[in-house]
Specification:
heterotrimer, A mainly alpha (200), B alpha+beta (308), C mainly alpha (532), A: 200 residues, mainly alpha, 79% helix, elongated, disordered N terminus, C: 532 residues, 1% strand, globular
């Protein structure tokens, strides 16, 4: 046995490996999220091919302006998130706090819009179960909304931690990972918006 | 005990050929592997500690050999299986069509001339039959082991199955897609008749009314119409209430209403089962409107009266 | 990750610290592994009792002990618990957790806290699944729509439990991929890795990529019952076949999540007890990945009789035959490993050999099912039930028991009674075959699965099968008693009782907290037995 294993010097998990591991883990997690939504996108494709008229007629009932505004809001939030990550990588803690707050603000605005939009749909008598199209609409935007809320919770924790001075140009992995997650939330919406609101 | 049921359709023999073909290949591999496992385990059994063992890490020739040979065999089995499958799945053009409806938990067959049977499919020998099938509720599976034929019934689309029965006789029909409490009671018979008998049967009037509705006739209907899948006559609970002692009994409905089991209640329950549901039982009975005649209902009632 | 200097602390065996709290809060991968071992064993017993009741009911046609509805809830509960609470987490979460860091020369997994959280998610899911027993579902573990939409039983709670447990599976897989990729000791190159690691890696990929799909399917099924969204409900324009596609897109790879780790175990045990290098290392390593990859492309072979097109059936049948090839290679390579070895038939080896024997039967009967025309006849019959149990018990459970006996000294620091272990093995082996072999014949004769009642002509084989289930249960009981007794009565285990070259055997039994005093530097592969 001795010939196979030589003793190396004491070796600990170094920060570089830790950072790479975390980032790799996050990307794997993103892959699972895409597969989760992948099921809904598959259902969308199949039923759109099966019921083109239904999709055409009912997508007109959706509120395009609110959808568009929400798209812009999320794109802005992605921008502020990216700026936040860049700031902390340069060691600017105040800027990180500012941009995290802005991102959270945009996220909240998105949710408030969504609240009114859904309320409007309910008043018009459109519920999940009204038709396959509206079921898809509510399931897709609903699952996305859950992700927005989860993302906001993550960002809120980051913001709270940022006040402890924990993050710096040397250690900012959680912020970066939170950022990747937030971009995913944004990216999914970028697909949902045209699929549900624009093409019918 | 036989390993396969009797083969009574024209492709059953072909399916059996594949089964035996795969069995032989499998046995060869299985015996080969088990032989070497046992042989090595005995021959090279450790006799003392620190035995010298050779350092063999693999052999490209052997590994290629046991990759390529199974691959070729597997492709042959695949092709063989697919060719016969295509035959099973492609009905000829001159088929006799019969409509099959599956519902919890009975089979209904509708023939060309409007004749309907339940849990009993009658077909002529030697004529290709095409079954056009649909479920009315959940998934079901139509399976006649003797024909080596199986096809699921879906509520979302029609599915089809064809076969040509080659032997006169009566064969078991099973439901193979799990469909709830009465799944294992969703049974039927396929009766293969000579073409002449079939023609006679097809042309015969539904059931010749034989004077007064008899309990005998009711007993026949109890099985023919599939009542037995859900209602026992010996007091055990299957899905619905047992018929034993049911006649004249006062039952409590789901809404608390009390109903005495009389002629009108039984008639309503057969034609509009959902109208009154006995408390504690699921509302799952299908309607038999247009399937059982008034005479039939009277016969069933007569039968019920005998079940004290 | 601990950052203190090891030299300053005296390494303490991981089992040393006592107290429930220390167990429930430990992020040590070995302790988490024990948590999994205890919990999956518990659910194995729970699911096993349901199985015994199912078999007892089938002893005679008609009613034996329970009514039809209760029977249906019993086999549903048996299937769900065994699949989602025992065999999917099974080897991967228990032995994977214990062995991966030790085998690759790491102190722990990449994300130890996430690892502990995964266990809690698993337990949360398990509690929800058990809670569903208040109004047990009767859908079968496959939850086919529209029945699962219409039944009055509690499908929501059961599927939600599976959904939660699914997260545990995803996070465990993610953790293992990162660990294997990033934390290997210096010198531990991919081609020096133990084959169990290759197997775990392939399994983890499946867990990460397939589990989200069952997650969304079950979520949609729940939405179907709550809101009536109609995706899978033909009454609303939905398609029940779509549900089957979704379900099997996960559940077919899941079969490989269950079996690949067991294949990894066998690849570890055969060389040690034959004192021979594994025959054809690369073929076995890459065949795990090949199986994982192809397993994503065969799901519709569960659907040959539901009306999918002939073209689709042809493609899926062909791909299914492809999976058989890497599987066959493994079987041949394991057998060849024993050639001219110095074979010690200790209990782990007996389990490993019975794995090969039974798994070969399981695999070969899979060939029958893959052949389209034959599948038409035996689909949804007892043939499938037998095939699946030959793979899952004959394969995975045998692999699990092999692992349990093989690494028992390492995990507990004690030895068990070898003689009793062999008797238990014989009972399990005989009992298993008596239970499940007759079911192949029942299947070819046409007996459909999930039948509460059956025709009298099938009774003799059902009787045999039920008797077998009692022998199997007795064997498992004896095996468990023997291992439990070993904890208190067993001799102290040496560091490396079986003479393995793998890294986990080069640390004390039980291993210290943080595994290695110093991270080893690896200079050779794991299977250098007999190397001069």
């Amino acid at each position: 046995m001795e010939e196979m294993v030589e003793r190396a010097h004491a070796h600990h998990v170094d920060p570089v490996v830790g950072y790479e591991s975390s980032k790799f883990g996050m990307w794997l997690f993103i892959a699972t999220e895409l597969l989760l939504f992948g099921g809904l996108f598959t259902a969308y494709t199949i039923y759109r091919a099966k019921y083109p008229e239904m999709f055409h007629e009912q997508h007109l009932e959706l509120n395009k302006p609110i959808g568009a505004i929400n798209t812009v809001i999320l794109i802005c939030s992605s921008l502020t998130m990216a700026l936040g990550v860049t700031s902390i990588k340069r060691g600017k803690q105040e800027l990180l706090r500012l941009f995290l707050s802005l991102t959270i603000l945009f996220g909240m605005m998105f949710l408030i819009n969504k609240y009114f939009e859904w309320g409007h749909e309910f008043r018009d008598g459109n519920y999940p179960g009204t038709s396959i199209f509206f079921s898809l609409y509510f399931m897709m935007t609903g699952l996305h909304m859950i992700h927005v809320i989860a993302g906001l919770l993550v960002l809120a924790v980051m913001l709270a931690l940022s006040f402890t001075g924990r993050f710096s140009d040397k250690y900012n992995t959680p912020v970066e990972l939170g950022g990747i997650y937030w971009h995913l939330v944004d990216l999914i919406w970028i697909y949902l918006f045209p699929l549900l609101y624009l093409i019918g | 005990m036989s390993l396969l049921p009797e083969a009574a359709s024209d492709f059953a023999g072909k399916v059996d050929h594949i089964i035996w073909f795969v069995t032989v290949i499998s046995l060869i591999f299985f015996i080969l592997v088990s032989f070497f496992l046992v042989y090595f385990a005995i021959k090279y059994r450790r006799k003392k500690e620190n035995e010298e063992t050779p350092y063999i890490t693999g052999s490209h020739i052997l590994e290629t050999l046991w990759t390529v040979i199974p691959s070729i065999l597997l492709i042959i089995i695949f092709a063989y299986g697919f060719l016969v499958f295509r035959e099973i799945k492609t009905p000829p053009s001159n088929t006799l069509e019969i409509n099959v409806t599956g519902r919890q938990w009975l089979w209904q067959f509708k023939y060309d001339n409007g004749k309907t049977t339940i849990n009993e499919l009658r077909v002529p020998e030697g004529k290709p039959i095409r079954l056009v099938m649909k479920s009315e509720d959940v998934n079901h599976g139509f399976f006649v082991p003797a024909f080596r034929a199986k096809q699921d019934l879906m509520a979302s689309m029609y599915t089809q199955l064809w076969f040509k029965a080659t032997k006169i006789g009566t064969y078991d029909l099973f439901c193979t897609q799990y469909c709830g409490t009465g799944h294992s009671a969703m049974l039927g018979k396929v009766i293969v008749m000579s073409p002449e008998d079939y023609e006679k049967w097809e042309k015969s009037e539904e059931q010749v009314a034989t004077g007064a509705p008899s309990a005998e006739r009711g007993k026949e209907l109890y099985v023919q119409r599939g009542c037995n899948a859900c209602h026992s006559v010996d007091g055990t609970r299957i899905v619905g209430p047992t018929w034993k002692g049911l006649w004249g009994k006062e039952e409590v409905m789901q809404d608390g209403q009390k109903v005495t089991v009389d002629e009108n209640y039984v008639r309503e329950s057969i034609l509009e089962p959902q109208a009154k549901i006995v408390n504690g039982y699921p509302p799952v009975m299908p309607s038999f409107k247009g399937v059982v005649s008034d005479e039939d209902i009277s016969a069933i009632i007569a039968y019920m009266k005998t079940l004290k | 990750m601990a950052n203190h200097t090891i030299a300053e602390t005296i390494p303490m065996p991981y089992l040393e610290e006592k107290g429930l709290i220390s167990w429930l809060t430990s992020t040590d991968h070995k302790r988490i592994s024990i948590l999994y071992l205890l919990s999956i064993s518990t659910f194995f017993i729970v699911g096993g009792i349901a199985a015994l009741l199912v078999r007892l009911e089938l002893l005679t046609p008609g009613k034996t002990i329970v009514d039809a509805h209760t029977y249906n809830t019993l086999f549903t509960f048996h299937g769900t618990v065994m699949v989602f609470l025992f065999i999917v987490p099974g080897l991967a979460a228990s032995f994977g957790n214990f062995l991966i860091p030790l085998m690759i020369g790491a102190r722990d997994v990449a994300f130890p806290r996430l690892n502990l959280m995964s266990w809690y998610l698993y337990i949360a899911g398990a509690i929800i699944i058990i809670a569903s027993l208040l109004q047990p579902a009767d859908t079968g573990w496959t939850f086919y729509t529209p029945y699962s939409i219409r039944t009055g039983t509690d499908v929501i709670l059961l599927t939600f439990g599976i959904f939660v447990a699914g997260f545990s599976s995803i996070l465990t897989g993610l953790n293992f991929i990162v660990t294997i990729q990033k934390l290997r000791a210096p010198g531990m190159t991919w081609h020096r890795l133990p084959l169990f690691i290759w197997a775990s890696y392939a399994t983890a990929i499946l867990q990460v990529l397939a589990t989200p799909v069952i997650g969304i399917s079950l979520l949609l099924l729940i939405a179907e019952r709550v809101f009536g969204i109609g995706f899978f409900d033909p009454a609303k324009g939905g398609d029940p076949v779509l549900f089957q596609h979704f379900f099997w897109f996960y559940s077919h790879p899941a079969v490989y999540i269950m079996i690949i780790p067991a294949m990894g175990v066998i690849s570890e045990i055969i060389p040690v007890f034959s004192r021979k290098p594994i025959f054809g290392y690369k073929a076995i390593a890459y065949s795990s990945l090949a199986i994982a990859l192809i397993s994503f492309l065969v799901w519709a072979h569960h659907m040959f009789t539901n009306g999918i097109s002939q073209l689709a059936a042809m493609i899926f049948s062909f791909l299914t035959f492809l999976v058989a090839i890497p599987t066959a290679i493994k079987v041949f390579n394991w057998t060849a490993t024993m050639y001219r070895g110095s074979i010690d038939l200790k209990s782990p080896m007996l389990y490993a050999l019975s794995f090969i024997f039974l798994f070969t039967i399981g695999g070969l009967t899979g060939v029958f099912l893959a052949a389209l025309a034959v599948d038409v006849h035996i689909h949804d019959t007892y043939f499938v039930v037998a095939h699946m149990h030959y793979v899952m018990i004959g394969g995975t459970v045998m692999g699990f028991l092999a692992a349990l006996h093989f690494w028992y000294p390492k995990i507990t620091g004690k030895m068990f009674n070898e003689k009793v272990a062999k008797i238990a093995w014989a009972l399990i082996f005989i009992g298993f075959n008596v239970t499940f072999f007759p079911q192949f014949i029942l299947g070819t004769e046409g007996m459909p699965r999930r039948y509460y009642d059956y025709m009298p002509k099938y009774q003799p084989l059902h009787e045999l099968s039920t008797i077998g289930s009692w022998i199997l249960a007795a064997g498992l009981f004896l095996m468990a008693i023997n291992l439990i007794r070993g904890l208190s009565n067993g001799e102290k285990a040496p560091q490396n009782p079986y003479g393995s070259l793998s890294l986990e055997w080069q640390v004390p039994s039980p291993p210290p907290h943080e595994n290695f005093e110093e991270i080893p530097y690896v200079t050779d592969w794991t299977y250098g037995y007999g190397k001069k």
